[in-house]
Amino acid sequence: MDRIKLIISDMDGTLLDDKHRIHSDFWDILKVMKRKNIFFSVASGRQYHNLLRNFESVKDDILFIAENGAYVVYRGNEIFSDVMDRETVNGVVEKASSRQGVSIILCGKKSSYVDGNDPDFIPFVGKYFEKVEVVGNLTEVDDDILKISICEHSGVQEDTVEYFREEGSRFRVTVSTKIWIDIAGRTTHKGEAVEIIQKKFGITRDETVVFGDYLNDVEMIKNAGLSFAMENAHPEVKKLADFIIGSNNEHSVVGKIKELIDADNPGNI
Question: What is Dmax (Cα atoms) for the chain?
Fold first, then answer.
């Protein structure tokens, strides 16, 4: 591939281990990337404010792709957002509310929102969302909604995606993890966000490296010149990626980035 100018990593199951930790070597490697003029981006289904908390000390050195590509921020400035129309949001909320065993989160620019009638779910949400408001009616939230996250507590069932895809011409349904599905604009995905970043900063596909593990990483893998799937990745992601590396619990992303940028020799590339 061409000289590396952009490295992108998913978070959960990829850069983070199962205890939600980033390997301590990452921070020094990020400094090397900065010296070598290589952009680093995290691309996640997580909320922007949650990602910001994880990288607060280096926030100006990170490109944030949040909400599965619906929100892209760099140095505190919005580069891109894909806001859902209110009719679609309310329709999905109504449909999801009629399904047993699910909880709903509206993901907005200012905050995320959960229904106060689902109290057992509220502490769980805090693991993934930094800013959360409890509201009485999700259809009355006053914010730009980027994504609707639906947690199916027993695990995403075979019919879940089809259940929400009946109106698929109006929105996109993506399985993010074993218990989460995300609903966003019809063309919203991490790959779209990657394309926008590449265009803005004059970076080509062949200058882009991507790491991922789940189905919401598929489109961004397709927009990279070099892609890596984790050993713990979904089988479809493993088939699509150029190479398979170790698991997230082995912190294999950090090791591979170090190798790719020759971090032991900061003057080289």
Answer: 58
